[in-house]
Design a protein that fits this description.
Elements (H helix, E strand, L loop, with lengths): L3 E2 L3 H11 L5 H19 L5 E7 L4 E7 L3 E7 L3 H10 L4 E2 L1 E6 L6 E7 L7 E5 L2 E2 L3 H12 L5 E8 L1 H10 L4 E7 L2 E2 L5 E2 L5 H6 L3
Helix pairs in contact: 1-2, 2-3
Length: about 210
């Protein structure tokens, strides 16, 4: 599988707290936000830089700026839970939104909304807490490519091997980053051991 598991003690600690069924929505959102910040370092590790002149209080020197614009695209609705943490690390990033819903019987994704900033050749980071069946992630990336975006990365909190396989097969050029690669999917399409429905836990719904 083509996937990067971001190994860090703080991520493992916070994710373990999030898995706990007793964790409140407030704490769940807070830890998700913090993990998103930590993961952004790894997701952006290989970004290109341009040298720029900088005047310090002492002298002239060389500084750096990102070569590409950054666009962050959460998959609605659960992807919104990762957005704030990424934007804290990349405050100048632009934000798009993709709305998909999953048919509860077939588990197939269906589009209901897509709005993407008009940046030219950006680095696009698609975010969604769970990579379960992989259908929604693959569909979202297909939608982005159809709109001309090419340099795409996918960031999630927890992934199942089945979802990684589907995403790798559909988009072998897309780098996948996760905080944890779990065991499997169950018969209902939920990740095991997972952490339940991320959207419900973020927003306090059922």
């Amino acid at each position: 599988m083509q996937i990067t598991v971001v190994e860090h003690p703080l991520i493992k600690h916070k994710l373990s707290k999030m898995r706990d069924v007793q964790t409140t929505s407030r704490d769940f959102r807070e830890w998700l936000d913090e993990i998103a910040m930590l993961m952004t370092y790894e997701v952006t590790r290989d970004l290109e830089l341009d040298a720029v002149p900088v005047t310090t209080p002492i002298c002239e020197t060389t500084g750096y700026k990102l070569h590409n614009n950054i666009v962050v695209v959460p998959i609605l609705r659960a992807g919104l839970g990762l957005l704030s943490g990424v934007l804290r690390m990349i405050p100048n990033a632009h934000v798009g939104h993709i709305g998909l819903y999953r048919d509860e019987e077939t588990l197939e994704p269906h589009e209901y909304y897509c709005k993407i900033p008009p940046d030219k050749d950006p680095i696009t980071i698609v975010v969604d807490p769970m990579l379960a069946t992989g259908g929604s992630a693959a569909a979202a990336i297909t939608m982005l490519k159809a709109r001309g975006l090419q340099n795409i990365r996918f960031m999630c909190l927890v992934a199942a091997p089945e979802g990684v396989e589907v995403l790798n097969k559909a988009h072998p050029d897309v780098k996948v980053y996760t905080a944890a690669l779990d065991e499997k999917l169950n018969e209902h399409g939920y990740i095991v051991p997972g952490l339940g429905d991320a959207g419900d836990r973020i927003f306090g719904t059922k």
